[in-house]
Amino acid sequence: MATPRKKAVARPAETEAPVKVDIAGGIAWVTLNRPEKRNAISPALSAEMIRQLDLLEVNPEVGVVVITGAGNAYCAGMDLKEFFRASDPLSAEEKAVFSRASAQWQWRRLNYYMKPTIAMVNGWCFGAGFNSVVSCDLAVAANEAVFGLSEINWGMIPAGNVLKATVTTMNHRDSLYYTMTGETFDGKKAASMGLVNESVPLSKLKKRVTDLAKILLDKNPTTLRQAKHACKRVISMDWDASEDYLFAKIDQMRFLDPEQGRQKAMTQFLDEKTYRPGLGNYKK
Ligand code: ACO
Questions:
Q1: How much of the chain exceeds pLDDT 90, in percent?
Q2: Interacting residues of 158 by C-beta distance below 8 A, sequence separation 6+
Q3: CA of 84 to the centre of ligand 1 (A)
């Protein structure tokens, strides 16, 4: 039987910004910052995420964006009080406006972000918390993180595209199982099902994510962007459309890449014989 929750005691009002950003060495660490509410997504948090993602996208000091949570949670999903209860009395039109901001950053914005993104899942991750994990390009979880599609436990379905995020990464049987049972699973299980790329002990999580971010920082940023967008776009295309799209992307690269990386790499491999593309990056 589940441990009963303590009766709510009066807590100080939130005084800190709902999102914290620290930039170091080309990496922007974006922390969902409502630890006392397990980083549940409130309208204020959504508004601030949109603002911060916009700022970071054009900040030349930032090459990679990492999203994580303050305290022992990554994200406990939508804020049941400030989002669901508050929107219950609204009309359908008002609800649509209300929920647009949360969808905006959780998947629309992140899915095709101009810079590489990594979700660093440090703890509790429920419901809508899945969205940013899946929308980020890569995801690393702590073994100790606890995931759950808890919607079934409170009379909801995993909406707001949570189910779409789930079936996009996890297989059909696992998606159905966790959607229907609401059972929790840990970081290792999340990695084995493809919801995250890998899981490591919590004590090593930040180091692993930093190392991963450094690998990305070393790549040609234009190529990285085109490659990750292509990865996401071709899924819904047929083979002909995909071939055409990918060739068009290559053409586009010739004009978009200020580094002219392809040319440099060709010269270094074919003429100068100074590197092997199979084993690492060209010299910038
Ligand atoms: N929405 C609003 N408040 C929340 C949420 C949430 N999703 N999650 C936690 N909180 C609040 C609690 O109400 C509590 O507030 P209080 O201090 O004012 O009473 C505080 O955060 C701490 O919560 P506890 O339950 O006491 O924390 P605990 O560490 O024991 O448990 C856990 C953490 C497992 C995450 C639990 O809070 C929980 O089950 N939360 C809800 C998870 C969920 O179902 N999310 C919705 C998913 S569906 C969707 O996103 C569409």
A1: 85
A2: 127, 130, 149, 151, 166, 179
A3: 13
